[in-house]
Design a protein that fits this description.
single chain; mainly alpha; Hydroxylamine Oxidoreductase, Chain A, domain 2; two-stranded antiparallel sheet; 20 helices
Length: 470
C-alpha cells in the first residue's frame, strides 16, 4: 500500500504546483502550442521601406512572410532596395503610384511615394552581387534566347504560335519584356526565363533558380531547381540524374545534406555525400572556384546538332578552352572518385560523341542536304514533311538523351532512351529519303500544319542585324 501512495502523492503535488502557475507560463512550457511570430522593425529602415513592408504585410502576406524568412531581411535589405527604380525607367509601374493616393490605409500618402518596377533584373542584383552577375552574363543561361533563335526551326520557320512560345518556350528560355499601355504586356510577362531580355538591357532572371522572395541558396542547390527546365524528351537531365547512382544517393541521404551552408563553403563529403547538379556545374570544390557561368567545366556542346567543343559552337561560342574546363570538371569528380575512374568515364563520353557524330548525325545531315538539292524536300518550312521531323528528333531528342545519358552516368538514357531509339528514327528517315530518290517523287507534305503562325522576325535584341558595309 505504501508503494502505491508515494507515487500518487507525487502526482498530486505536481498537479497542484502547475495549477498555481500563471496561465501564460503553462502555455509557454506546454508542447505543441502555437506561438505568434512577429517581424519587428528594429533597424534603420527608411520610412518608404517601412511603408512597403507594412502594406505588403497586409496585401500580400505570402510575399511578406517569404521575405521575412530570407537572408535579405536579416541583412536589412527591403523591398525598395531591389524594386526601386528611376522615375524615367521604362518599366516603372504607373499603376503602383495609385497606392499612394489611398485613404483606407496609413501609408497611402505622397510622402511615401517611390517609383518601383515589378521586374528585378540581374542589373539590380549586381549592386550587391557583381561577381555572380558578371559570371552569369557570359553563360549559356543568360544567352539562351539568342541560341534558340539561331538554331531552332520552330522559331525561325514560324511552326508554332506566338502564344505557344509565350506559355512554353519563353518560360524557360526567357521573353523579351515589353510595355503596352503603360503595363508589362501579357505575352511577355510573367516570365522568369534564364535568358529573359529586360527593359534595362540586362539578360536573365536570378529568380529562375533563387525564387522570390526567399532567394534561398538552399533551394537553388537542389536538383529540383534545375529540373524545372532540364526535363522532358529533349534534355532530361533531371530524369537522368534521378536514375543515376548520384540520384540514388540523393534520394537516400538528401534530407541530411547541409543545404544552407554559406556560399563558397559547400564541401563534398562534409555537407553532402553525393553530388547534385549545382555540385558539378556551379559550386566550388577543391581548387575549383564557385561560378554562376554554367558554360564553364563543359568540354562538349552536347545539346548541339553536331557535337562540337563549346568554343566552336557558332550560335554562342564560349570564351573558354575545353581542355581547361575538362580539367576543372575532372577535379570536381576526383573529390569523390579516383583519377582512373574519372579518366575512363570521360573516355567513354568522348567515344559516344564520336559515334553519334559519325554514325548517326553526319550521314543523316548529308542525306537531308541531298533531298533539298534534288527538290524532294521543300525548304520553305520545317516539320511539315516527315523526314524533317525525324532528322530534328534524331539530334534534338534521341541524340541528346544518348550523349547526356553517358555524360551523367545514366545507362537507361544512354541506351534505351538514346542509342536504341536513335536506330529506328535513323532507319525511318533514311527509308523515306531513299524511296523518294528512287522514285523521284517529293515526300508527302502536311498541308494543314496546325498553328504555324509564329512571327519569324529575329528580334534585334537577341540577333542584331549586321552592320551595313561602308
Amino acid at each position: 500500500m505504501k508503494r502505491i501512495l508515494v507515487p500518487l502523492f507525487f502526482v498530486f503535488a505536481v498537479i497542484s504546483f502547475l495549477c498555481l502557475l500563471p496561465a501564460g507560463t503553462w502555455a509557454q512550457t506546454a508542447p505543441n502550442q502555437a506561438k505568434v511570430k512577429e517581424f519587428r522593425i528594429e533597424r534603420s529602415i527608411p520610412k518608404e521601406g517601412i511603408a512597403c513592408i507594412e502594406c505588403h504585410k497586409k496585401e500580400n502576406p505570402g510575399i511578406f512572410t517569404d521575405w521575412a524568412h530570407s537572408r535579405h531581411a536579416s541583412a536589412n535589405i527591403t523591398c525598395i532596395d531591389c524594386h526601386r527604380a528611376d522615375e524615367t525607367d521604362p518599366d516603372v509601374s504607373k499603376e503602383h503610384f495609385k497606392q499612394y493616393e489611398r485613404s483606407d490605409q496609413p501609408y497611402g500618402k505622397p510622402e511615401y511615394k517611390v517609383p518601383i518596377s515589378a521586374v528585378v533584373t540581374p542589373k539590380d542584383c549586381s549592386r550587391c552581387h557583381p561577381d555572380e552577375v558578371k559570371q552569369y552574363s557570359r553563360s549559356k543561361h543568360a544567352n539562351t534566347l539568342q541560341i534558340v533563335w539561331k538554331v531552332d526551326p520552330w522559331m525561325n520557320k514560324g511552326m508554332n504560335s506566338d502564344n505557344e512560345r509565350a506559355t512554353g518556350c519563353y518560360h524557360c528560355h526567357g521573353s523579351i519584356l515589353k510595355i503596352k499601355d503603360g503595363k508589362l504586356s501579357y505575352d511577355t510577362w510573367p516570365s522568369v526565363g534564364v535568358g529573359r531580355i529586360n527593359l534595362d538591357g540586362s539578360k536573365g532572371s536570378c529568380t529562375s533558380c533563387h525564387t522570390r522572395h526567399r532567394f534561398s541558396v538552399a533551394e537553388a542547390r537542389r536538383p529540383e531547381a534545375c529540373g524545372q527546365c532540364h526535363l522532358g524528351p529533349d534534355h532530361p537531365q533531371i530524369e537522368i540524374f534521378t536514375e543515376s547512382k548520384h540520384g540514388d544517393i540523393y534520394a537516400t541521404y538528401g534530407k541530411d545534406y547541409n543545404w544552407n551552408a554559406a556560399p563558397g563553403t559547400w564541401t563534398p563529403g562534409v555537407d553532402y555525400r553525393g553530388p547534385v547538379c549545382a555540385s558539378c556545374h556551379m559550386s566550388g570544390s577543391g581548387n575549383v572556384l564557385t561560378t554562376h557561368d554554367v558554360t564553364e567545366r563543359l568540354s562538349w556542346e552536347l545539346q548541339a546538332p553536331l557535337t562540337v567543343r563549346p568554343e566552336n559552337f557558332k550560335p554562342f561560342p564560349a570564351k573558354t578552352n575545353w581542355k581547361v574546363e575538362r580539367a576543372k570538371m575532372e577535379s570536381i569528380c576526383m573529390q569523390c572518385h579516383s583519377k582512373l575512374w574519372v579518366k575512363n568515364h570521360f573516355a567513354q563520353l568522348d567515344k559516344t560523341v564520336q559515334e553519334y557524330n559519325d554514325v548517326y548525325f553526319k550521314p543523316a545531315k548529308k542525306m537531308l542536304t541531298q533531298m533539298y538539292e534534288k527538290g524532294l524536300l521543300d525548304k520553305t518550312r520545317f516539320f511539315d514533311e516527315d523526314p524533317e521531323l525525324n532528322f530534328y528528333e534524331l539530334w534534338h531528342h534521341e541524340g541528346r538523351r544518348n550523349r547526356m545519358g553517358v555524360a551523367m552516368a545514366g545507362p537507361d538514357y544512354a541506351w534505351w532512351h538514346g542509342a536504341y531509339d536513335m536506330k529506328p528514327k535513323f532507319n525511318a528517315f533514311m527509308k523515306e529519303c531513299l524511296e523518294a530518290i528512287k522514285t523521284g517523287k517529293p515526300v508527302y507534305k502536311h498541308t494543314y500544319y496546325p498553328n504555324a503562325t509564329g512571327d519569324t522576325t529575329k528580334p534585334p535584341q537577341v540577333v542584331p542585324k549586321p552592320a551595313a558595309k561602308k
